[in-house]
Amino acid sequence: MLPIRENGNSDMRFDSLSILSPVVGLLAVALAAASASQIDGQEPTINASAPTKQGFLVDVTLPLIGSRDEQVRQQIDRVASQQKAVADRPVVVLRFLQRPRTDNSGQEEGQTAGTQFERALALARYLTSPAVSRVRIIGYVPDSVQGHAILPLLACEDLYVAPDAELGNASVDEPVDGTIEGAYEDVVSRRGVLPAAIVAAMLKPNTRIVRLSLDDGTTLVSEDAQAAGLRDEGKVLREEMIWPGGGMASFNGQQLRAQRWIAGTATDVRDLAEQLGLAASLRTPIAFPKQWKGITISLMGKLNSAKVNQLVRGIESSTRDQETNLIVVKIDGLEASFDDAVRLASYLAELQTDRIFTMGLIVSPCQGPAGLIAIACDETILLQGASLAPPSENQPNTNSRKRTLVVENLAESSQRPVSLIAKLVDRDVELREFIHQGTGEHQLFAPWELNRHADAADWLAKQTVDIAGEIPPDLALQYRLIDAAEASEGLALSRIGLDAAPSEMRTPWLDASIQMLVAQSWIPRILLMVGLMALMAELSNPGIGAGAFISGLCFLGFFWIEGLAGNVEWLEVLLFIAGLIALAIEIFVVPGFGLFGIGGLVMLLVSVVLASQTFVWPTTSAQLSEVSVNLFWVACLAMVGMIGLLFMHQQLERLPMFRWVALRPVREDEQEELEQREAIVHWEHLDGQVGLTTTRLNPAGKAQFGDSIVAVVGTGGLIDPGVAVRVVEVRGNLVLVEPASA
């Protein structure tokens, strides 16, 4: 009820409002109905407030060492150079990420080993210069920032801070002097993002800050010493202590927002984009050249070392001859071993970002090390329906010191989280979320990773992150395993200003020809069959002749093609060579068909079967089925080879075109003369004599007759050494014997 004044005006005002209120209500209803009818008669329109403006994301990696600050300038310049008018300025979000530097042993030197004042001031002056006026600079702090890295933050037009992230301790690296204090005051006066007194408390220890309510109805945030004059003049009605001193000031995002010193708080980049009214995801200005010359690499099926070599050669050829500056890598149902995936991922991560930009598109669910190739790109986009996941139980688990070193190197070159990269190659890695007790920063760590931090004792474990299946997209975005999640390939490509994917990379003609040969599954089988036929022909006629040469070429071609397909390793090669050596021993050293002959054939068979598959021992039903198929094909080829050899042996000499290479059969009247002519010595005097075998006859060997040791051939089965034998027939220099007891 309104208060009643003595002159009665309040009663009259109340009565007038009471009379007019029904009229106002009727007018409001009528206007609403008219508006609704007008809308019903129109076509549906797009909501004008829907976020359509595109923003850009620039990572400011702290501390500012090396060329980090120069990279920030280059990316902002790329966006500003595309903007000709200042009226509708694009938004550039500077995300300040803490990446502590390490010493020579790989140990981190801690969060306080920060940015030099001169470099921070240079970046802050650049951000407030007219050259940057074409864009709107927004500072975003997802993790705590301290040291002189505060200075470029103050040079932004607006600040957004994660709720638990802290700002403060600006002079933690070096004491304050007049030059440093003057530089901070100059930047604050240009932007006014934070009150000057708050910045002074962050910079100078033991500075007390109070909020004063003055008698003119205004409030003032001031240093306690400067507020003394207002107190003496009696202008202070009420005061509130904001910072009691005792050290350099530090405030988290919630406190800064509660005091209305910053524009807002944001938990991640997507939340920030929504608050700024930007499109769903921010673009990377490093991928913002004037003209793209791109290629697309589609990776599907199985990746092997030969394919990696081919891709590397193709990329080098494209970037050298065609001046390619964009590579779009599509991962669609790719399977890759740890070594092959790491080799290609490391190559992509080490490409010069200022000259070649790489974008990884994960099109379908991707398990295991194959995901390393996508996250090694400068920008990684997860499309709708796709996912990243640790290796399945059927995939080999890579868990070794080698894996740790490789993962750390890849994380350093790609600026991705070590813990989630390790999860992609080892499903048994245990991930835990930690919070820094001093700064409030959240991080995911593997057990071995946390121990390498200089401030490991300051990290408090919160909870275990259980990733049994795919890695949640929100988690991957939060810790920047991926850069964005888009609904379609078109939206992903629009982030870099493309309407469609570039054309596929052209493969060099030699690689294309080799790849075509590898793709023909019948070629290695034909080579294997011809090789087996030639080997059997050589075994039937001991010696080194055309059969040995042809079989060698065929087997060499077989292993070369299977090696390009990624099926051949040292085990298969060693087994094949050992099998050939065993057969040679059986033929030339101990004639017959014994242990060396059987063992050699078995090793050859196992080598050929292993060379036709990617595993050694089957562990799944699918692999067992593949082994049976390979055994079936090898058996069929061997049988075809034997039949073909038999047919050739009988029919080859009858063919007119091969008669000139075949020997004419010897007639009976020529046989005796031929034997006499070919005989080197004559053993007719041994006919009917009894001797003693000196070696095993299987069936050929040697026997002693008197003082002579003669090469003989047994007519029965195998005859052991030291057995009496009788000569049953002499044909030139061929002496046939049988056991004397027979």
Characterize the structure shown.
The chain has five domains: 55-207 and 245-275, 2-enoyl-CoA Hydratase, Chain A, domain 1, CATH 3.90.226.10; 208-240; 291-494, 2-enoyl-CoA Hydratase, Chain A, domain 1; 520-654, no CATH class; 668-739, OB fold (Dihydrolipoamide Acetyltransferase, E2P) (Beta Barrel). It contains 24 helices and 26 strands. The chain is elongated, with a radius of gyration of 42 Å. The protein has a five-stranded parallel sheet, with helices on both faces. Strands 12-13-14-16-21 form a five-stranded parallel sheet. A five-stranded mixed beta barrel has the order 22-23-24-26-25.
Key words describing this protein structure:
single chain, 742 residues, alpha/beta, 2-enoyl-CoA Hydratase, Chain A, domain 1, 5 domains, five-stranded parallel beta sheet, 26 strands, elongated, disordered N terminus
Number of strands: 26
Any idea of the CATH class of the largest domain?
Answer: Alpha Beta
Strand order, sheet with most strands = 1-2-3-5-11
Which structural class matches the secondary elements?
Answer: alpha/beta
* Overall average residue pLDDT: 77
Query: What form results from the Cα inertia axes?
Result: elongated
Number of alpha- plus pi-helical segments: 24
Unreliable runs: 1-51, 102-113
Q: Name the CATH homologous superfamily of the largest domain.
A: 2-enoyl-CoA Hydratase, Chain A, domain 1
Which strand-content bin applies to the residues?
Answer: 15-25%
CATH topology of the largest domain: 2-enoyl-CoA Hydratase, Chain A, domain 1
Oligomer: single chain
State the domain count: 5
Secondary structure: helix percent: 40-55%
- Give the N-to-C terminal Cα separation: 140 Å
Q: Mind telling me which CATH architecture of the largest domain this is?
A: Alpha-Beta Complex
For the largest beta-sheet, the strand count, sense and barrel status come to: 5 strands, parallel
Radius of gyration (CA) equals 42 Å
